[in-house]
Amino acid sequence: MAAMKKEQIMILGTGNTLFTDEGFGVRVMEALADRYHFPENVTLVDGGVLGINLLGIISQADRLIVIDAIRSRGNPGDFYRLEGDAIPARIRAKNSLHQIDLLEALTLCQALEKVPDTVVLGIEPEDIDTLSTEMTPAISQKVEPMIEMVLAELKRLHVLVRPREVKDDVPRHPI
Description:
Helix content is 31%, strand content 21%. It has 175 residues and is α/β, with parallel strands linked by helices. Strands 3-1-4-6-5 form a 5-stranded mixed sheet, with helices on both faces. Strands 2-7 form a two-stranded antiparallel sheet. Helix 1 (24-35) crosses helix 6 (143-156). The chain is globular and about 45 Å long.
């Protein structure tokens, strides 16, 4: 009897780290990679603003956890958890090209008959227009709670992660 293949899980941080809070998803993904060891079936990806160019990589995942800043007319720092039919409506509301492209990439996965189960964990940004590699204080203090949200998603999927003892080689998968 063949062993069951573990589900491939991808944690995808998206956003532009050159525009203040727009880089939130990438910053959270980097913090996760720095602080935790993940099982071999979990991949962390810095998706930046690649959008549609992520098609090849996201089609390899069975489950996809996307972390990003999402404008949804809320208060800066509000968290969002989107899945299923809620994803397209909220992403279109953002007016961010990388998120629209990400939605198109997820749609195109249907042509490959490999659409990952997707959850988007987002935050309402305070500022995504100012050219700065530093997030606003209100949003930077939300990195820890978002890490907890990602870890909770992994726990729902029965994935256990271990904290890193020391900063060692970090297995990131840049595109």
